[in-house]
Amino acid sequence: MEEELLTSNSKKNVFSQLCTRISQWYQGVVDKTVPWRKGRWVAAILLIAGFLARVLLAQGWYIVTYALGIYHLNLFIAFLTPKIDPAMDFDGDEGGPELPTRANEEFRPFIRRLPEFKFWYSVTKSTLIGLICTFFDCFNIPVFWPILVMYFITLFCITMKRQIRHMIKYRYLPFTHGKPKYQGHEETTGKVIISPK
């Protein structure tokens, strides 16, 4: 009896160690992709294109495609939204707090609710799951796909209109391209000296 318990415990221990090693290896592979932003997104776009080619060639799995599109839309909205929503952080002013518009105002960087890496990771993982679903007939539910396309376009337009209004109202831009970069004054020695105000 004791030998059976020891054998079953050692099997569980070996399985647990194997799962731990696999998860550590997987996390290491994922961590190595962090600096390769352009490459990651190219791979994700190619994966989405492969998924769409599979759906178009097979002429099915429109519900899976619709669900994947809605999920990607929600991820994109979270990517565009600030982590601390200015609409919720209301301190009594008429319009609520706003991001700085002049150089002498307090610097508050734009922090996303969903960081870029997690956005990419979720898009890639969900697209892989959607691609796997296209190999099972139980997910191929017959629907009239033009209605799903029109509903998705309508939902996309309404959601983006609301998001753009939010961006205009609270004066933030979720992209760093074209934003001013502030630097200190440099001496000839190469040291940076920040002058007091």
Automatic annotation (TrEMBL):
Superkingdom: Eukaryota
GO cellular component, one term: endoplasmic reticulum
Keywords: Membrane, Transmembrane, Transmembrane helix
Main location as per UniProt: membrane
Spans through the membrane: 41-57, 63-81, 143-160
Compartments, as annotated in UniProt: Membrane
UniProt entry tagged with the keyword Transmembrane: yes
GO biological process: protein retention in ER lumen; retrograde vesicle-mediated transport, Golgi to endoplasmic reticulum
A Pfam family matched in the record: Rer1
Membrane-topology annotation of the record: Multi-pass membrane protein
InterPro entries, per database record: Rer1
Function: Involved in the retrieval of endoplasmic reticulum membrane proteins from the early Golgi compartment.
Family, similarity comment: Belongs to the RER1 family.
Protein name: Protein RER1
Organism this protein belongs to: Diabrotica balteata
